[in-house]
Amino acid sequence: MGDEFFTLDRDATAYYYFQGNRDGTAKAKKELRYDRNLWDTCAQLQIRLPFITRYPTEPNSYSPNANPYSGFGNAELRYSYSVASKSFDHALEAGIAFPTATNGVESLETVLKFFYTTKWKWSGGSVAYTNEYDQTVIRPPGASYTSYYEGKVTLPNVSFVDSPAWRGLKFSAIYNFRVLFNDGGLVQDAVGGIVSGSAGDVGLLVVDSWGIGRYGLWKYKVEGSAVVGLP
């Protein structure tokens, strides 16, 4: 946020995750993101173009033999405004997910998304908290309904490699929870870790998290992204 590598004038991100669910199904996402600063380095517009693969455990209308099936997901448009200082960063973000999915890989609903992220920094570390609220605003017949609040704590963001080539490789622990308003206030959560840094001009991020408790967010989820500035 703020003073980190993704505040470039223009950049592109390749993002991937694989999520194993508690019911034995799985989901993989490959996503291309394009960011463009607007009138200053604080304001940024982002486009997200996802490609989804589903791994079912039982036959369905999109996979009669329960084989993996793929398609374009719900494209997103996001606007963010971030302010950074020596000891504290914060950012507001709003987005919309469009009903562009093909082959049944995601629900054909239109979802508004709102985020507020805060980050307290000190010499050698930081702690960040992200608020997220997602809400379906257009729901065609047969589509699912989304309404939840999600919180994520990230700390202590400490360096463990001092190398000019890697530019401060850092580690953080995360705690992630979600309150499902469309499911009676059910709470789901997960814990994990993040490794981030830069190799040359490429920003790198790897996240590994595991659902906890009876209603974990997922069984496990592995995420990775690479960010590169554009001319």
Secondary structure: elements and pairs:
Layout: E1 10-20, E2 26-37, E3 43-55, E4 69-72, E5 76-84, E6 88-97, E7 110-122, E8 125-138, E9 147-161, E10 169-180, E11 186-199, E12 202-212, E13 220-229
Antiparallel strand pairs: 1-2, 1-13, 2-3, 3-4, 3-5, 5-6, 6-7, 7-8, 8-9, 9-10, 10-11, 11-12, 12-13
Kindly describe this structure.
The chain has 231 residues and is an all-beta fold. It has one domain (5-229): monomeric porin ompg (Porin). It has no helices and 13 strands. The chain has strands at 10-20, 26-37, 43-55, 69-72, 76-84, 88-97, 110-122, 125-138, 147-161, 169-180, 186-199, 202-212, 220-229. It has a twelve-stranded antiparallel beta barrel.
Features:
disordered N terminus, Porin, 231 residues, mainly beta, twelve-stranded antiparallel beta barrel, 13 strands, single chain, 64% strand
The order of strands across the largest sheet is 1-2-3-5-6-7-8-9-10-11-12-13
The sequence of SSEs as H and E is: EEEEEEEEEEEEE
CATH architecture name: Beta Barrel
Number of helices: 0
Fourth CATH level, the homologous superfamily: monomeric porin ompg
The total strand number stands at 13
* Strand portion: over 45%
Show unreliable segments.
Answer: 1-7
| Euclidean distance between termini CA atoms | 21 Å
Structural class: mainly beta
Shape: globular
Helix coverage percent: under 10%
Oligomer: single chain
